[in-house]
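Subject: for your reference before the review

Hello V.,

The reviewers asked for a structural picture of the protein, and I figured it would be easier to keep everything in one thread rather than splitting it across files. Below is the amino acid sequence we used in the manuscript, unchanged from the supplementary table.
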Amino acid sequence: MKHFLDKMFRPAVNDNQRRVVFPPLPNHFTKNDAQQRALIGWIARRVGQLLTLEAEETDLLFYTAFSYQPNKSRENDVDHILYFADHLVRWDVRDNSAS
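And here is what came back from the structure prediction:
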C-alpha cells in the first residue's frame, strides 16, 4: 500500500534530483529550531512571491530555509533572500527577549 501511495502522491525523481529539491536537514533539530526555520522560509517565500518568482522557486526558498546556514557566503539571489529573512527573524527574537 505504501508503494502505491508513494507513486500516487510523489513525482518520480531520481536520487540526484531529490537531493537538489530536498537538501538534508541538520541532525539536531529542536521544535524551536523548526518553528524558527519555518518562519524564515515563510518570509523568504513571501518575498519571492512579491518579486514575482516562479512558484517552484518560491517553494524551494521555503524548503531551503530548513538547511540554510546564515554564515555562508551569499552567492545568488536565493542566498540573499534567505539571509535577510534570517536576520529579520533574529532581529524580532532579540527585540522580544529584551522586553
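For the response letter, the relevant points are probably these. The chain has a mean pLDDT of 77. The two ends are 52 Å apart (CA to CA).

Happy to draft the paragraph if you're swamped.

O.
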